[in-house]
Amino acid sequence: MDDIKKHDLTSSKDDKSSDQEKPVSYIKERVVTTIVLMLYMSASMPSVALFTQYIHSRYEDFYRNSTNSSSTSPGTHSPCLRNTSEEADELQVHIQQSTSYEVLKLSLSVQVPAIIVNIVVGSYSDHIGRKMLFILPLLGCICKYVGFMLVVKFHLHLNFIILGTLLDGFSGSASTFLLANMAYAADVTKTHATRTFAIVIADSSVAIAIALGQLMTGFLIEKLGYFCPSVINTSLILLATTIVIFGLTETVKKTEVKELSPVVHLKKVFGFYVSKRRDNKRSIFISCVIVFALLSIVNIGIKLVETLYQLGRPFCWDPEEIGYYGAYSTVFMTICSLVAIKLGSSCVRVEILAVTGMFLQMGSLILEGLASTDAMMYAVPVVGSISGVSVPVVRSVMSHMVDPQEQGAIFSSMATVETLSGAIGSATFTFLYSATVDTIRGMAFLVMAAVMFMAAVIKM
Fold first, then answer.
1. How far from 194 is each of 201, 345, 388, 397, CA to CA, in Å?
2. What CATH number does the domain containing 364 carry?
3. Contact partners, residue 137, CB within 8 Å, separation at least 6
4. pLDDT digits over 70-83, tens only?
5. How large is the average pLDDT for residues 262-289?
6. Could you list the residue range(s) of the whole structural domain that residue 74 is in?
7. C-alpha dihedral over 83, 88, 92, 93, to 10 degrees?
8. Structural domain tally of the chain?
9. Is 390:358 a contact under the CB 8 Å cutoff?
């Protein structure tokens, strides 16, 4: 941390000169980006649960030779029965395994292309502006939902969903959108403290938006089926796109991109970890990015496994209950994290709060892996309480160690690592869940807890 303070002193002149180029109304810009962020996240992120539940219902129809259309009446049969025969239990295992492999295909079709996009797009934005970073993933999300709606409406083969998700991946998807928001937050903040809080606010807005989206999506699936939520979410994305185009002020003064080669921008993005001119900070960069990668492996991997976990025995939750739990979990941990970073940062270093959050998340993952009742599941967010502090602190530390004109590059670096780690986490934990669903259903969560322990030890 001493290196960070030294960097603050040496770059104070650059900060003053860059402040003169920033927008006068910081509040207005933060409000607009918060609205756009919440619209995007409330519409985009629930797609994981939406797609998973739809695929799960399709495989139920397939294995049970049902003639009912899962696209119109998801409530006509229960996702599973709490007390079943051995034959029915074996059927549920097959349904869960088939669903997990299908969901994994969709996840990788988004994340693998996004890795390529995130490597260079953030660095380019330091020259051509931030708006592009917002608009690309918004358009990609629209393509994702259009593909899904066609499959639901016409009962097409599940592989057709992949076409839309591939387009979403080549737009950068959610990781590029978060990159845009973090870089934008860095553009309109000055000090380490305000930047940390701004990033926490952005992450909290994401959490609240996801909670609202999950609640709404779960309710709509239960009452109206899978098509209606897709239409509503697409409308929200279109509204966010309109606001970005006409209401968002560009924070970067556009300059000529002297070198268009992706190789040059690749060096800019990953030069923080290998450049000799950063010898005094390189170890901090490396340790931070390793911690960030481990956190991303867990946080992204859990999203795919958790919905499957709740659909199966012994919980047998329906879409509405999954939505309620997602909303409760997200809102509770968000509020706890906000209070912790606002009040706790005045007493202890934010890095200590981050490590504490990691250990608490480790405990919550162990509890979730061992859960056998609804009460144990609802206790998971209580144990995890301030775990949402960890990622924003790491983002803020890394952002504050670079110059204003390098914010796009550093956040592009983090977005690339996040996407790559997400692909690793998705593949690892989905395969692990599928392999252990008939023996130790919570094994994936226990392994996630071990990964989280590694992150906490490195951060210490």
1. 10, 12, 17, 12
2. 1.20.1250.20
3. 40, 168, 171, 172, 173, 174, 176, 177, 180
4. 444 444 445 466 55
5. 76
6. 2-254+261-459
7. 110
8. 1
9. yes
